């Protein structure tokens, strides 16, 4: 998971878009991630009464934003494996906490080898954290599905110590967007876990 906070990086506001660049320390930590390391940090939820196995990368990378940050965010990947068919659905889960007004995120633009693609997002949760002193703080949790071929392309871009982070931008109806990133090693780790599980089940 990956999120950059203004306390650690330089933020720019360009035409309603918040552009956050990682600090040198963050980049060093992200480049140190490996597919196998990410795989070992995954959480796999499964039991005999569930029809779907849930694999999440929530613990691979945790945002360490401060309470005073203008925007705090975190994201991770989720893989849902149908136990009977072996079919897999991949989703990126994103949580954003901010002040001001509801952003009302409805779509996401993400990078692909053939150029940017726009996709709808599903609203998972919306909370009002506080409205003290006339300033409201909101939290939105959204998700969007990632085609398997796209996730494989992200994973394939992993290069030890020099991976390019995968970029995606959430579009808000308020006119204020939010851009975030994901390390290719995290995607590769999820794919390794999915293949291992399916192989064990003979799928």
Write up what this structure looks like:
This protein has about 200 residues and is of the alpha+beta class. The longest helix has 18 residues, at about 185-200. The protein contains four helices and twelve strands. It has a six-stranded mixed sheet with strand order 1-2-12-11-7-8. β9 and β10 (about 135-145) form a beta hairpin. It has helices spanning about 25-30, 35-40, 150-155, 185-200, and strands at about 10-15, 15-20, 45, 50-55, 70-80, 90-100, 105-110, 115-120, 120-130, 135-145, 165-170, 175-180.
Poorly predicted sequence stretches spanning 5 or more consecutive residues: 1-15
Biggest sheet: strands, sense, closure? 6 strands, mixed
How is the quaternary structure best described?
A: single chain
Q: What would you report as the Rg, rounded to the nearest angstrom? A: 17 Å
Give the SSE order as H and E letters. EEHHEEEEEEEEHEEH
Distance linking N and C termini: 28 Å
Mean pLDDT: 87
Let me know the number of strands: 12
